[in-house]
Write a structure and sequence with these properties.
Blueprint (H helix, E strand, L loop, with lengths): L3 E5 L5 E5 L4 E2 L6 H20 L5 E7 L5 H13 L2 E7 L6 H4 L13 H9 L5 E5 L2 E6 L12 E6 L13 H10 E9 L4 H9 L3 E6 L6 E6 L1
Parallel strand pairs: 4-5, 4-8, 5-7, 8-9
Antiparallel strand pairs: 1-2, 2-3, 6-7, 9-11, 10-11
Helix pairs in contact: 1-2
Amino acid sequence: MKPLKIIETGDGSHTLFNEALNETYHSTHGALTESKHVFIKEGLSYYSEKKPDQKKISILEIGFGTGLNAMLTLQAAIEKDLEVFYYTLEPYPVETEVIEKLNYKSLFELTYQPYYNQLHELPWEVENKVVENFSIVKTTTGLENLSFSEQFDLVYFDAFAPRKQPELWEVESLQNAITSLKTKGVLVTYCAMGVFKRNLKSLEMTVESIPGPPGKREMTRGIK
């Protein structure tokens, strides 16, 4: 397997380049900016603002990767006083020595920095409480084997792009993610491809094309 390369993105934050797939883990225009926009602003914040009385939010992430989305969600949970259960899929975990070279910790205030290493050091396949209001399960289970039913409020769909991992964006795989969502639950992703949006609509999702992060005109939000 070819090694992962660390590259600096447009906002100064790192991402990983997977040589085997010829694909980066985040936008080269800004890894941190992309994650904040797609998953926090248009996902978690959007959902919590729509349901201000709901303080317990369960999240399914497709693609733990570098852990950046999880880290930002933990920070948001603390700052917004939310109780978050975070279930994240990653069939191919990034090796510790690679994670340690990423500059993500330096992008957060000192009080949050220790949590980044902790997220990666926690054992897999069990629920771990990181802070009082943020618990996480990391699993190497693939989306094709997911079997939850109406458990999650929010899905972060952060798999590699459809042209690189097409099987994850097809109706059969998407069905597993949608089945796991509660009614009125929300799915967000950086992807805005027409075939993907049509697949969501075929699964009876209400689909919105909304402004994307820097370098991307649109992203997608689906509501069950």
